[in-house]
Amino acid sequence: MEISIATFRNAMATPINKVAFGGERLVLPRHGAAAVPWCRWMTCLVVLLLVALGGPSAAVRAAPAVADWPLARLSFQPSMAAGFRDTNGKLVAGTEVMHLVPYKGRLYASTSLWMENDPAVPKACQVLVLDSPQGPWRVDHQFTRNNLRYGSLKAVTFTTDAQGKPIAPATLLLAAPDVFRGPVQVYCRDDQNGEWSASELGTVTKYATTRSIGSHRDTVTRIDRIFAGNDKLGVIGGYYAPAEPGHIRWEKSAELATPAGERVMSFCECNGMVYCATSRHIYQRRDGPAPDWKEVYFCPKETSPSGIRGLSAVPNPAGSGQVLWFAALSKARRLDPADGFKETIELDIPAYLTRELGMRVTYALAAYNELLPFTVPGTAEPFWVFGFECCYPARVVNADPQLKTRAQKKENPPAYFAPNARYCIRHAAGANITFAVAEVTDARQPLLVSTRVIAVSPFVEDHGKALYFGGFDCNSVPAHNTAWIYRAELTPENKPTGNANGVSGK
For residue range 31-43, what is the model confidence (pLDDT) as tens digits? Predict the structure, then answer.
């Protein structure tokens, strides 16, 4: 039996009395707070021998070796680099790609003009669209100078009306740009004429962002609900209203007030309940005609610029049902609703990257929007993937001339961001959770900084074997047309082109 390198590395990094293998836990005596090195090596030896012999339970499925993970050997080609005119003569501009959304056979992207330093470029975000794998990107909608950055781009399907009566499924593409002041709006695309019409959440007098949009079937009223999370206006609920502008009718007051100084980061459904993450809190909605939200998690040390990211539901590694997965304070975490929202740290991302890259990493901002599930066509092997950015300490950067030249340097507070666009792959085999790190490869070595978003190709000719990666993060550093999108294809097993584990640190 082949033993995964990831299994060995995870065992090495695990506390001496918490080594897990094949979905079961090996408990050994603990020799004080600082276990001596020979104990850790002996633990790893025992684990590897047990795994090689089939483990304590022959029915447990072992994780595939990292080298066999298809997502670790993708072939990348540039798909979009901002700073060109589309086939209609419109300027495609942007410093960041914020979202990638498959919708009705096309791929849509949203952009940001934050930190754009060319005064000739309009500081107004855009929705872009790609009609085919070989086609060019083009501007689908141009917003105004009151809309610097995209907060949300989301496809939502309604199957009930406002009274909870069944209707033919209606799928809408919704967009919520940030505003400097004035009406806060959510736009809906009309697929017949390509126009975008707006519904209104409220009005603000200073900069506001609708960072997230979510949907949920209320378990009591049986009405398909939609939620928009705005940092100034709170979480506002709505429902499908096809006769109204924007096809959504929003409630007049918020269901949940956004905590002061925080943003509404994401929504997700887990075990039939809907959850909302703000910068430092996670709330659970109690459904019904008079709904309310209950706090189930608080991360006091998290900050609004980073915040709780990627709130998603994943299968419970310890049993049935689902658990909440998210990233906070540079760690991948889980909460188990069935166990009093008990928290589990899945991965210390900077510590893991330090081992994998061979250079110290001090910070990671991971899973900007969500954790993407992916099953390789023709298999039943479950993977999840998320992008991230990371920082090196000054001494690491200064000791490497090439890295010093390429790293993104932030002045205040001082920080060095890796120039690479990397992503993490998560695999679950029962309770055995393993990770791999890989990166978007481009021989030209452009400054990419961050993978913000990943989406599976919507094009039928790809047969689910292609993905799109998008990103860049300005990190308060002036930039010009740095937004990017790459197309990635699964490669034959004998032709790996990606680089997993030991990826370049430069």
Answer: 333 333 444 444 4
